[in-house]
Amino acid sequence: MSIFKQIPKSEWPEQPDHLVRVYKSTDFLVQEYAEPSGVTRLTINSTKRKNGMWVDGITWDQLMHVKRMIGYSNVCAVEIYPPDRDVVNVANIRHLWLVDMPDFAWQKDGDV
Fold first, then answer.
1. By the number of CB atoms within 10 A of the CB, which of 28, 56, 58, 107 ranks highest?
2. What is the pLDDT of residues 35-52, one digit of tens each?
3. CB-based contacts of 41, cutoff 8 Å, min separation 6
4. How many CA atoms lie within 13 A of 89 on its CB side?
C-alpha cells in the first residue's frame, strides 16, 4: 500500500484558507484543512489523471488506509452526502471530516 510523505508548504499545489498539511503518495494526494468550526477535513484524490480529471473510484478500504497512514487511525471520520441543492461536484475528490465518535456509530464491542 501507499507510503505518504508530508509535502513542505513551499511545494503545495495551492494555499487556500485553512489548509494546514499536504501529503502525497504514488497513489493519492491528501490535503488537511482546519475548518473554522473546529473540525478537521481531509480531501483525498487520486494522483492519476484521465482526460484532465483525477481518476475516480477510491474505495472504502483505500480511504481507511489513507486515514490510517497520515496518523488518524484512532479517529472517527464521516463522509457527507448533502441535499441535492447543496451538491458541488466539480472534481473526483473525496472529503472526510474527522469527528468524535457519533452515538449511532458501530463499535467493535457491539454497542451502538
1. 28
2. 999 999 999 999 998 888
3. 32, 33, 35, 95, 96, 97, 98
4. 9
Can you read off the three cell numbers belonging to residue 97? Answer: 471530516
Q: Where are the alpha helices (DSSP H) in 60-100?
A: 60-69
In sequence order, what are the residues at sequence separation of 6 or more whose Cβ sits closer than 8 angstroms to the Cβ of residue 112?
103, 104, 105, 106
How far is the CA of 7 from the CAs of 22, 52, 59, 101, in angstroms? 5, 23, 24, 29
Amino acid identity for residue 35 in this structure:
E
pLDDT tens for 14-36 read 777 899 999 999 999 999 999 99
**Confidence band for 107, pLDDT divided at 50, 70 and 90:** confident
Tell how far CA 11 is from the center of its chain: 19
Name the β-bridge partners of 44.
Answer: 30, 94
Cα distance between residue 40 and residue 26, in whole Å: 23
